[in-house]
């Protein structure tokens, strides 16, 4: 029951306060990870196997001290509860996700495509320079759906399952994947451990997120069908179910070709229906918000049952 109350409290803190404007711990951790990468990456002549081992070592060095420190802190009476609440609040990014997406939507509705591309570039890794309204809307909706799992539901899942230490390990691993988990020549082997760890930690949260999108959407049957038929063709084992179910729940046609770092990638179609427009960004944000209330209700019911 205490876990459920902490989840609700952290979600409310995020809703009313948003993320810290300065000195966010994940930003600081990202800077630390860059310094560790500079030390651990090794010389250009390293073999693929050795580069992968260096990446594994970097992940261990970065994650274990923070997880152990968190585990020790939450053992302290009273202080431990405050630490757990504060860490979960920092791990949940629902307010920030909505804020970034709505900034793109506002720019589109004002007819300012350059500003919309600029705002979009802050939340996606694809190239945004030549996107039109439909392309910007599609990229934003996809980002909202996918990051709903990474920034909200995965954090809640690991907090419920493993407490504050679990959510710290999850969010830091997720951050390393965002930094190193690319299939580029530079990160293909060094980032292997970060990418595989993130895949493992997100496997069940992603499928629970897809289910919550289906239940919170207006077209649950379509969301389920898109999830089952389209997700297996997506390159990411976790983003596929989340985005396919979300696209179906919204009745939108997502996916398709996209350009990353100057190279076009062929991506399968996701969902079914109309091409996304600016107003659909708001619908995606609302879907994630309804799914969050479903999660909190389920966690509360579970806490009451166990109590």
Structural summary, described in words:
This protein has 307 residues and is mainly alpha-helical. The chain has one domain. 72% of the residues lie in helices and 4% in strands. It is built from 11 helices and 4 strands. It has helices at 2-17, 25-40, 48-73, 79-91, 94-109, 113-120, 133-180, 192-216, 220-230, 239-250, 278-306; strands at 253-255, 258-260, 263-265, 269-271. The strands form 2 sheets. A two-stranded antiparallel sheet has the order 1-4. Strands 2-3 form a two-stranded antiparallel sheet. A hairpin with a 2-residue loop joins strand 2 and strand 3. Helix 1 runs antiparallel to helix 11, helix 3 crosses helix 7 (133-180) and helix 7 packs antiparallel against helix 10. The longest helix has 48 residues, at 133-180. It is globular and about 50 Å long. The chain starts with a helix and ends with a helix. The chain crosses the membrane at residues 55-74, 81-98, 151-173, 287-306. Its main location: membrane.
Count of DSSP E strands? 4
Poorly predicted sequence stretches spanning 5 or more consecutive residues: none
Number of helices: 11
Estimate the mean pLDDT confidence: 94
Strand proportion, as a percent range, falls in under 5%
Distance between the termini: 6 Å
Give the helix proportion (percent range): over 70%
* Alpha carbon gyration radius: 19 Å
Strand order, largest beta sheet:
1-4
Main beta sheet: 2 strands, antiparallel
The succession of helices and strands, N to C, reads HHHHHHHHHHEEEEH
Count of separate structural domains: 1
Structural class: mainly alpha
What overall geometry do the principal axes of the alpha carbons give? globular
Function: Converts cobyric acid to cobinamide by the addition of aminopropanol on the F carboxylic group.
Subcellular location: Cell membrane
Keywords: Cell membrane, Cobalamin biosynthesis, Membrane, Transmembrane, Transmembrane helix
Pfam family, one: CobD_Cbib
């Amino acid at each position: 029951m205490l876990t459920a109350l902490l989840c609700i409290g952290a979600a409310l803190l995020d809703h009313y306060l948003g993320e810290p404007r300065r000195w966010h711990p994940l930003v600081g951790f990202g800077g630390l990870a860059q310094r560790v990468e500079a030390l651990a990456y090794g010389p250009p002549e390293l073999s693929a196997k050795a580069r992968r081992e260096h990446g594994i070592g970097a992940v261990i060095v970065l994650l274990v001290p923070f997880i152990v420190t968190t585990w020790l802190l939450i053992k302290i009476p009273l202080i431990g509860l405050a630490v757990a609440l504060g860490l979960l609040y920092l791990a949940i990014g629902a307010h920030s996700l909505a804020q970034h997406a709505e900034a793109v939507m506002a720019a589109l509705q004002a007819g300012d495509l350059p500003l919309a591309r600029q705002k979009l570039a802050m939340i996606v890794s694809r190239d945004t320079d030549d996107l039109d309204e439909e392309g910007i809307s599609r990229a934003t909706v996809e980002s909202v759906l996918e990051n709903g799992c990474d920034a909200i539901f995965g954090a809640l899942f690991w907090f419920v399952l493993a407490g504050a230490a679990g959510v710290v390990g999850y969010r830091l691993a997720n951050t390393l994947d965002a930094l190193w988990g690319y299939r580029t020549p530079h990160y293909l082997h060094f980032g292997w451990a970060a990418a595989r760890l993130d895949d493992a930690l997100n496997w069940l949260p992603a499928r629970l997120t897809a289910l919550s999108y289906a239940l919170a959407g207006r077209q649950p049957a379509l969301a389920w069908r898109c999830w089952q038929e389209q997700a297996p063709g997506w390159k990411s084992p976790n983003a596929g179910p989340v985005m396919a179910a979300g696209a179906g729940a919204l009745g939108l046609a997502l996916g398709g070709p996209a350009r990353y770092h100057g190279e076009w990638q062929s991506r399968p179609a996701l969902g079914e229906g109309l091409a996304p427009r600016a107003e659909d960004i708001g619908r995606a944000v609302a879907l994630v918000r309804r799914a969050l209330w479903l999660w909190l209700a389920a966690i509360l019911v579970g806490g009451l049952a166990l109590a």
